[in-house]
Amino acid sequence: MTLYIVATPIGNLNDITLRAIETLKTVDLVAAEDTRHSGLLLQHLGIKAKLLALHDHNEQEKSHQLIEKLQAGQTIALISDAGTPLINDPGYHLVKLCRANGIKVVPIPGACAAITALSASGLPSDKFSYEGFLPAKSKARQESLQQLSHESRTLIFYESTHRLLDTLMDMQTILGADRQMVLAKELTKTWETFVAQPIAEVIAWLNEDTNRQKGEFVLLVEGAAVDETAINPDAIRTLQLLQTELPLKKAAAITAEIYGLKKNQLYQLGLSL
Ligand code: SAM
């Protein structure tokens, strides 16, 4: 009666872990996003497993079936096409349901494109905000970026080949051409590439050769510099005073209310004071 959340490689098959192999060998059932795709991985590992499809379109319905099987004493492994399940991949409803029903959930950690990219990016990694995919439509995407424009933590995005340039153009418009970023391409694969440049330079690099726009990408963007000079000095003083008596979140909210500023901007400032 255990659900294992098993991470699989994001390109290099040698990145499967010993625990993942052991788990996939011993469970009663493997729930996979794409049974054909995962069938090939299992075949490569010499594992004969019973597979069941669990993808975005049937997750709610299939989760109930899987809960019944788990309650009947079966062990199940959840895998996605690549990397860690639930990280922009199916599994959230199933795990939530397991927790609600007192079913044990055991993570078997391994590759995740976001963390893999961050670890070698050279951008601040002590604090970061994982944002997954930005909206597909430019207007909504620009709005999301606007909301993130004052975020001082490193931002991590996933993006598909066909939206890569449009997204970078929107980043250039909203976050500025000079904002430093890292494009991490084809991680763990033969053509793994890191391009660490300001946004405008990354766009230029991609436009130099359209082949560069093909593949899998993680986009990491340096957080906004907290610009104290842009904030009214009275607001800074108020924040400092309130901070001595209140938690930062509350102090930032009150100061934002008084001076008509953004809560998050003051919160970030408070952290740096
Ligand atoms: N669950 C996965 C994980 O743990 O990273 C992510 C799945 S999400 C549907 C797929 C996206 O992850 C791709 O569009 C790309 O942005 C990113 N990605 C996955 N593998 C990658 C790789 N080898 N190199 C760069 N990005 C990758």
Give a concise summary:
The protein is of the alpha/beta class and 273 residues long. The chain has helices spanning 18-26, 35-44, 59-71, 92-100, 113-121, 138-148, 164-175, 199-208, 233-245, 248-259, 263-272, and strands at residues 2-6, 29-32, 51-53, 75-79, 104-108, 128-133, 154-159, 180-185, 193-198, 217-221.
What does this structure look like?
The protein has 273 residues and is of the alpha/beta class. Helix content is 43%, strand content 19%. It is globular. It binds S-adenosylmethionine. Residues 10-11, 80, 82-84, 87-89, 112-114, 158-160, 184, 186-189, 216-218 line the site of S-adenosylmethionine (SAM).
Topology:
Blueprint: E1 2-6, H1 18-26, E2 29-32, H2 35-44, E3 51-53, H3 59-71, E4 75-79, H4 92-100, E5 104-108, H5 113-121, E6 128-133, H6 138-148, E7 154-159, H7 164-175, E8 180-185, E9 193-198, H8 199-208, E10 217-221, H9 233-245, H10 248-259, H11 263-272
Parallel strand pairs: 1-4, 1-5, 2-3, 2-4, 6-7
Antiparallel strand pairs: 7-10, 8-9, 8-10
